[in-house]
Amino acid sequence: MNRILLITFLIISLQSTLDICLLIQNQQFLVLADVERERNLKKRARRSIEESFQMTQTIIESGYNPNMIRNRRRDKKRRTEKKEKIAKAEDELSKLSGIDFRKKYRVTMEIFENILNAITPIITNQFRFGGRLQVPARLKLASTLRYLAGGSYLDIASIYSTSQRTFYNHRGSVMDAIIQCFPIVPPTLLEARDIAENFKQKSDLSCCVGAIDGLLIRVNQRRKDDYTRKGFPAVNLQGIAGPNGEFLYVNTQCYGSVADGQAIRVSCLWEAG
User: Which of 34, 78, 140, 225 is the S-S candidate for 255 at Cβ 3.0 to 4.6 Å?
Assistant: First the structure.
């Protein structure tokens, strides 16, 4: 009986020992597998770094910026968005009726097209570096006229798909082009007779060659002489218009504090008369 118990105990002990050995062996296999997996990951990461380095070296040797691909994708997305905004602005401009167009821009469609045809060669950039999308001349002129008609630069920059800085650059170039293409030249003697005849037909005024008036234009300067009697800085503009509303003479050499009578007396027109 004792022998049977002893043999049974030995068998159970041997079985437990075998189980413990198998467990230890499996644990070792798991550890070795983790080590091998980590080694493979390190090799793969090292290979990826080497390939990226080789690609970077190739890009640098070929003369390209390593960030060029990312920048190109970003610029392509921006150009696409700007194209959509420009197309939308042009579509809204073309949908305006004659009355609404005149209210918004203070000129008729015919005059707008005449101005556009004259200044387009001047305000269109022939060479553009950096691949930037150019704003059409039509939108440049429309945004400038809208500003001169009393629009805010904040709304104009948003509607016509330009930044505030770009809008101010366009405004300056468009106004310079208009002055260059449509200079204000005093009429000759023969032209003055035709103007007087037109005035007579429209208002029964004889021997009238122009209607003169003054206007205070606000400025950002803060000199003492710029302040008007109304309390804001301005420039005194003296203008003479013909029977069709066209300017025949403009003088802006006086400060806002100068009265209209004195401003016209110091002009070259008064000296010539």
Answer: 225
